[in-house]
Amino acid sequence: MISQTTLQVGAMFEIFTDPYLIGITIASVIIGVSAGMIPGLNASVTVAILLPVAFGMDPIPAMIFFFGIYAGAQYGGSVAAILINTPGTTAAAATTFDGYPMSKNGESGRALGIAALASGVGGLFSVIVLITIGPPFAEFALNFGPAEIAAISIFGLSLVSAVSGDSLAKGLVGTALGIFIATIGRDPVSGYSRFTLDTLLLTDGIDFIAALIGLFAVSEVLLNVETIHESVKGFGQRVDSTFPSLSDIRESARVIVSGMFVGSFIGTLPGSGSTLGSFIHYGIAQRIAHRGKEFGSGVIEGVAASESANNAATGGAMIPLLTLGIPGSGTTAVMLGALNILNISPGPELFTQQSDLLWMWFGGFILANIFFVVVAFLLLPVFVRVLETPRAILFSVIAVLTIVGTFALENTLRQAWLMFSMGVLGYVLKKFDFPVGPIVLAIVLAPIIELGIRRALSISGGAVGPVVTKPIVAILLVLSVITFFSPYFREIAGGLSRIGGSRS
Amino acid sequence: MELDANTVRDRLDRTLRLRKSTGEIAIVILLGVLGLFAAIYSQLNLPLENPFGAGVGPRLFPQVAGITMVAMSVYLLVLRLWRRRKGTIDDEVVEMNVRDGLRVFVFIVLCAGYMWVFEAIGFGVSTVALLFLLFVTNGFRRYILAAVLAIAFTFGIYLVFTTALGLPLPSPILRDVTTGIL
């Protein structure tokens, strides 16, 4: 008898023969790689700008489109890192250490080629991790009630410490601001109006998709407008063949494989993400690579180490989102926005009731990781011209897209005004190093937590004890406390990495 | 008082400097006031108990958020002031050229104006005008090309939204044009 899993894996590979879905994947990868190259347009910003596209699409092509952008942008970030010493995404920051020196030595094609190969291999491995760990984890989560769901979301919110950058207090005040923003509008349980100030504008609250677009995309546009006259050195340089040679592959194989495992593991931990994965693995690779002691001077293994780990984190980062509905990072929060537009609730039921969708998405994610490598090998010398696009045109068009896209949310400009206000707020906060990630996470998670707690307390007759002493709830609350203090662990890891760096 | 071109240019080329901690202090004060508003508003207008049964009502969450905002703002404020006094803060200076600041301000005003007239005059005309003005005010000075690109992008966005995604945009002119072409 053919098992259910075999059928699902078969469904996953259906995408490989569907010209429409293949076309969507190629288009999304091209958009993702092109956008990822441009400093300021990382995966979350690009997906946020394009969220309204989901309105006009079916769930399968829509999510494949966003997975393609995610994977493509993750690689695209390395192109700007290598060519102009400015990582297109923060996850590619470690790629600048060796990528840019290689570019200065006239080896940009070599660096871009190995970056593409390492990213592709890392990304593919991460999808395998997602496929392997996701379903059993979702099965376990099927038994969760409102208390457990609230506890998981509190765990997600505790990740504020992981996305707060340097200051936990700034992250906390941002989280509280996000919770406040999330409570604006009509209370879903009692119907009481909260902070609406009797205005029509605030009656239905602030749509979290509008908040996402504003805080991620518009704030970034405004930051770029401020420096729009500054030219970026390195634009327009010629890139030769990006096919990696056999000797380069042989030299980098060891760090690519270790990056796959390290990146996937770190990506699976909610809130950690690809930036942390690439930096930690870069530190590890310095010890295990053939030329580890020369890292930072333009060593091809350094590029491979950073890139394989940062793309290996992409699939893992999807596990908390798809199995529990908890976004652990800005990018996954935006992906949740896409699922929301498509009326799909991520969580364990997704794996049992809509598994066909899920396996097609996985297939699309695999395809995206293959296609961006192909795009990099064949078309990158052409695509690097994206870096020459006048920023005045690029960011003006993006501004229009955010407004028109938000208009499409409910066919009125109400949410567009709120979105743009959020963008201005995000711009001011970013200027003074207040992270917007915690605000976004709080806007997304606060309603889930509030509803979960209120339902659980309603079931327990208002008694708190029976709710917090449930085993899973108790474990998750303890984990939340541990996660909350994770920056201190990271500080220790960073210290060790710095010691390693100074030795080399 | 009349200003000659050189004076205006000099003023635009001035650089505004603000200590980062001063900006942070201004933001935490604003957030603290907002938190205070949230806490007091919740206390005065929302019930703590669930009005329809056991459990908590609509006050708990916003009030906790408000109190947290106040507490963290006070903490950050005291910390910044203390460190400034002790001189232990790494207080970099945020610089902004008047011209750059003005560009951001104009960008925001143009986008706000666009949203103001979007539904009244339609997507087509307002988007072409906005894009042209944004291109030019952000330094793209090839006016004819800017106008051509503004029209092309407007048409492209309209086609993607209405034709490919099936999302209607208010634009009688473009609707007639696309109906004629397609």
Core attributes:
heterodimer; A: about 500 residues; 2 strands; globular; B: about 180 residues; 2 domains; about 5% strand
How do the strands and helices of this protein lay out in sequence?
The complex is a heterodimer of chains A (504) and B (182).
Chain A (H helix, E strand, L loop, with lengths): L3 H11 L4 H19 L5 H8 L8 H26 L10 H10 L3 H34 L4 H13 L1 H4 L4 H16 L1 E2 L6 E2 L5 H4 L4 H19 L19 H23 L4 H16 L11 H25 L5 H12 L6 H6 L1 H29 L7 H20 L3 H18 L5 H23 L5 H4 L2 H14 L1 H18 L1
Antiparallel strand pairs in A: 1-2
Helix pairs in contact in A: 1-17, 2-4, 2-17, 3-4, 3-11, 3-15, 4-5, 4-6, 4-14, 4-15, 4-17, 5-6, 5-14, 6-12, 6-14, 6-17, 7-20, 7-22, 9-20, 11-18, 11-19, 12-13, 12-14, 13-14, 13-23, 18-19
Chain B lengths: L4 H8 L2 E5 H26 L14 H27 L6 E5 H24 L1 H15 L5 H22 L7 H10 L1
Antiparallel strand pairs in B: 1-2
Helix pairs in contact in B: 2-3, 4-5, 5-6
Name the structural class of chain A: mainly alpha
Query: Which value, in Å, is the CA radius of gyration of chain B?
Result: 25 Å
Q: For the residues shown, what is the average pLDDT of chain A?
A: 84
Helical segment tally of chain B? 7
| Count of separate DSSP helical elements of chain A | 23
Strand count of chain B: 2
Number of domains of chain B: 2
Low-confidence stretches of chain B: none
| Largest sheet features of chain A | 2 strands, antiparallel
Oligomeric state of the chains present here: heterodimer
Widest sheet of chain A: strand order? 1-2
Radius of gyration of chain A: 22 Å
The rough form of chain A would be described as globular
Count of distinct strands of chain A: 2
H and E string of chain A: HHHHHHHHHEEHHHHHHHHHHHHHH
Most residues in contact: chain pair: A-B, 65 and 69 residues
Unreliably modeled segments of chain A: none
Order of helices and strands of chain B: HEHHEHHHH
Cross-sheet strand order for the largest sheet of chain B: 1-2
Total domains of chain A: 1
